[in-house]
Structure formats: C-alpha cells, structure tokens
Amino acid sequence: MKSFFSVLIVVFSLLFFFNSSAQQDGGILEVVPSSYANIPGTGGFLGPLYTGARTYQLLIHADLLTNLVGKEIQALSWRLITSATVNWPPADVTVTDYDLWLSGSVDPANRSITDFSSNVVGPQKHVKVGSLFIPMNSYPSGGSPNDWGPAIMFDSLYLYTGGNLLVELRLSGTGTTNQSTDAVTATTIPPYGTLISACWGSGYSANSGSQGNFSIIRLSADDPVPVEFTSFTASVTGNSVELNWVTATETNNYGFEVERKSASSDYENIGFVGGAGTTTEQRSYSFSDVVKYNGNYTYRLKQLDYDGTYKYSNEVAVEVTLPDVYSLEQNYPNPFNPSTNINFSIAEAGIVKLAVYNLLGQEVKLLVSGFTEAGLHTITFDASSLTSGVYFYKLETPQFNQTRKMLLTK
C-alpha cells in the first residue's frame, strides 16, 4: 500500500511539473490579449491542436507586450474553447513536428494573407524544434474560460526588446481528434484588426492562405540570464584541444575567459574570447589550446558581463595522448616573412637542441637548448634580423637528429 501511494505522489508531481515548469519566482505569465485573461474568447480556432498539417501566424502589437520588455520569453500555452465538453486529448499524443518561431512583426492591421513571409520583421528565431508530447487529458474543459493547457517550453529563449511580435507555428498534425483553442474572432470585435490579427495556411510549409481567428495565448517570461549556452564541446587533434561553444542569446556579454585544469593544477586562465554584447542571434565561438604533456584536462568558460559580474559554463573534459616518437615537421608557413612555426616531437624527456643555420653551415639562431619534456612542441621562429634566403633548421637529441630546409622571403 505504501508503494502504491508513493507512485501516486510521483505521478501527481510529474503532472504538476509539466503544467507549472514555466512559472518561476519573479516570472511573468502574460495573457494576450490581456482583456481575455479571465473571460472566454468570442470563438475558437482549429489550428494549434489540429489533426493535420497547418501553418499559423499570430501578430501582436507592442502595446500588448509592455510587461515583457527586457524579459526572455520561455514558453507559451493554449486553452480549449469554452464549449469543449471533455478534456483533450483522449490519449497521449506525440506531434512529429511542432515548430515555433518568434520575430518582429508588421502592424497587425497590415497583415498579409497572400505572403506570410512579408509579415515577418527582422530575423526569425527558431525557439522550438521538432516533436511535442501532449499527455492525455492535459487540456482541461468545463471552465469559463478553461484552465491553460501544458506550457510548451522553448528550446531556445527569446529576448523581447520591444516592438510588435510575430508568433509562427508550423505543425505536422496531432493525428488524433481535432480540438479548437479559445480565440478572438476575426470580425469587428476588438482588439482584432488593430492590436492582434492572425492568418493560417493548409500544410506545414504554407506561405499563403486565409485570415484566421486569434488563438488566445499565455506567454511565460522571466528576467534574462546573461548568456544562454546552447552547447560547449571539446575535441583533441594531436596536442591541440579545440573548444567550441554556441550561445542562443547574450545580454551585456563582455566575453569569455577560457580556463583549464589538469590533474596536477587547479583552474587557470589560458585565454579570452570577446562576446557580442546584447544579441538575440545565435553566436558561435572557438578557442584552440596547445598542450605539451599527456594527461586529462578539464575546461570551462567564465562568462563576464560589462559590469564585472560573471558565471561559469559547464565543464568539458578530454584526454590527450601525445605520440611517443621523435619527429621534426616542416615549418609553416613556408616561405615565410618574418616568422614561422616549427613543430617537433620528443619520445623521451632529455637534452634537446633546435637551431637554425645559413647556407654556410653557420648557426644563426638557437631556438631550444636544454632539458625538454616528452611530447609535441611548437616553436615560433622570428627572422626579422635575417636577410632573405634559404636556411636550415636541425633537431638534435642523443637518440635522434633531423634537418629541414625553409625559405625566408622579404
């Protein structure tokens, strides 16, 4: 019996989380249009919960969104039409494609039904990608208005900075019984045609169609985080660790300090990559770290705001295994002016000499002399003081020596 009640508590908790996950301390739940927050709409629309494929655009005037300026929109919700007599859906539903985009918008009064793309102002942000799971009976009926259905969480948050807003939905179809959502009819009933409007087309990729009723929505928003990381990865090539990360949005982002730690050291700052300030566009960044020794390395990013506040990314770890061979690689670039890089590999730690010679065999530059750890090494040779011509560079150890030619052109 105890186990049975434990299961009930877990199930109830999961359902509560699904319906409330967008609600956080300090968050905003903004019903659009707000005049219908506590009363039902004047009609319904068969679109957001339609059995077949649809394209649907909602155009919202900036005057209805003043509470959201400077906030990140995180999710949206629909509710059933008041005349609905049963909860929806009758069984669990997975919509294969339920994609949402947010962007600026033309004035709702200027909406086009012959070219949906002309309703978009500025870049569209793909905030929700792919399938959507809808639990059985998660949209309640019997209210006036009905309670909201589950929050549809965004994969990528949208920083709203003001202006008209366009919500675009493209879905492949629920594949179950149709269900209309609560809506404001496209007639003279305000604020349709001035502060809100809508259009729809048949098919996932439609770009024209008909005027539509405006499905009343609830937008979930909260204060923006300084930077929203989409990914942070590390890969190893030889002795080079390539770090790559992507941000979905940035707010007052000065940049990123790249930090590394090994088994024998704590985190240390090894470089800096500038940020994009404030942007709602996806940004990609990279950083290359050359390590000298075998071992496990862990990396993280310290994201810095312009005001000095900071936060850390998640950590990524890699294992570097350097080649246990002796080698001297061709310098690059070659020809060069005035500097070039020379890579060499040492199988065992010991005494190493790397020097540059002219055509007469005279030593003109000593690059390495003394004890050197095993592994891959990179030396930068600056030939600013030398004249143009052919030079040789030679690597010498007790077990190995090799000579290569390079060309300085000034």
Give an account of the 3D structure.
With 410 residues, the protein is mostly beta strands. The protein has 3 domains: 19-222, no CATH class; 227-320, Immunoglobulins (Immunoglobulin-like, Sandwich); 327-408, Immunoglobulin-like (Sandwich). The protein is 5% helix and 51% strand. It has 1 helix and 29 strands. It has one helix at residues 2-20, and strands spanning 28-32, 43-45, 54-60, 71-77, 93-95, 98-105, 120-128, 132-134, 152-160, 165-171, 181-184, 196-202, 210-211, 214-215, 217-222, 227-237, 240-262, 265-279, 283-290, 295-305, 310-312, 316-320, 327-328, 339-346, 350-357, 363-372, 375-382, 389-396, 401-408. Strands 16, 17, 18, 19, 20, 21 and 22 form a 7-stranded antiparallel sheet that branches. A 6-stranded antiparallel sheet has the order 7-6-10-3-12-13, with no helix packed on it. The protein has a 4-stranded antiparallel sheet with strand order 1-15-4-9, with no helix packed on it. A hairpin with a 4-residue loop joins strand 20 (295-305) and strand 21. The longest helix has 19 residues, at 2-20.
